[in-house]
């Protein structure tokens, strides 16, 4: 007897059942001096919003350090109280996500950046990208990952200033203007 193939399981759309938590979008508490908002909209391959994705961020503190034993320089207590380096935000009905954080510091040999994972329906695994900031443009040329991306696609890794203390970073999962995703 031969059975048909079972359909592949995707990473969504049931993310809202257990992955988000109330303060997930707050890498730093509200009112933290120097805090910025980073967010945007997640789009699918047809340019439609994705209302049920989950965006995770992981980043160094403003000194470019991690409070983690795997930091090659050793774990370091963040210089700002309440900084946890990790955020998780589901998209809303409008496809928008937003985290409250501090701009990261540079890691050895890398421009300051925020690592991003996106989970969404239709994806068989998360996709991973980075956010680089206009405030650190002088360091972009020396970043090996950013330098390896074809010039015509680098803009998909760059946040855009969107008012005082705000940065916009839209994520396009496929199609025209697709965000550069990393093979990890």
TrEMBL record:
* Keywords assigned: Dioxygenase, Oxidoreductase
Is the Zinc keyword given for this protein?
no
Q: Which InterPro entries match?
A: Intradiol_dOase_C, Intradiol_dOase_core, Intradiol_RC_Dioxygenase, Protocat_dOase_a
Quote the SUPFAM superfamilies the UniProt record gives: Aromatic compound dioxygenase (SSF49482)
Q: Where is the composition biased (Basic and acidic residues)?
A: 62-73
Species per Swiss-Prot/TrEMBL record: Pseudonocardia spirodelae
Entries under Pfam families matching the protein: Dioxygenase_C (PF00775)
User: PANTHER family recorded for this chain?
Assistant: DIOXYGENASE, PUTATIVE (AFU_ORTHOLOGUE AFUA_2G02910)-RELATED, PROTOCATECHUATE 3,4-DIOXYGENASE ALPHA CHAIN
Q: What are the residue boundaries of the Intradiol ring-cleavage dioxygenases domain, all occurrences included?
A: 35-175
Q: Where is this region: Disordered?
A: 62-84
Sequence similarity: Belongs to the intradiol ring-cleavage dioxygenase family.
Q: Does the keyword Oxidoreductase apply?
A: yes
- Under which EC number(s) is this enzyme classified? 1.13.11.3
Q: What name does the UniProt record give this protein?
A: Protocatechuate 3,4-dioxygenase subunit alpha
Q: Which superkingdom heads the taxonomic lineage of this protein's source? A: Bacteria
Q: Name one GO molecular function term.
A: protocatechuate 3,4-dioxygenase activity
């Amino acid at each position: 007897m031969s059975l048909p193939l079972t359909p592949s399981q995707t990473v969504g759309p049931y993310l809202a059942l257990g992955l988000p938590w109330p303060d997930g979008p707050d890498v730093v508490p509200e009112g933290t001096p120097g805090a910025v908002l980073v967010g945007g909209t997640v789009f699918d391959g047809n340019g439609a919003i994705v209302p049920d994705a989950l965006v995770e961020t992981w980043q160094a503190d403003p000194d470019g350090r991690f409070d983690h034993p795997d930091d090659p320089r050793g774990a370091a207590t963040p210089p700002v109280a309440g900084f946890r380096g990790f955020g998780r935000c589901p998209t809303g009905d409008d496809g928008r996500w937003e985290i409250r954080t501090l701009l990261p510091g540079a890691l050895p040999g890398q421009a300051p950046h925020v690592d991003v994972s996106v989970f969404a329906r239709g994806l068989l695994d998360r996709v991973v990208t980075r956010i680089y900031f206009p405030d650190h443009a002088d360091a972009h040329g020396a970043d090996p990952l950013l330098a390896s991306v074809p010039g015509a696609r680098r803009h998909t890794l760059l946040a855009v200033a969107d008012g005082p203390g705000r940065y916009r970073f839209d994520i396009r999962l496929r199609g025209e203007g697709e965000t550069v995703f990393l093979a990890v």
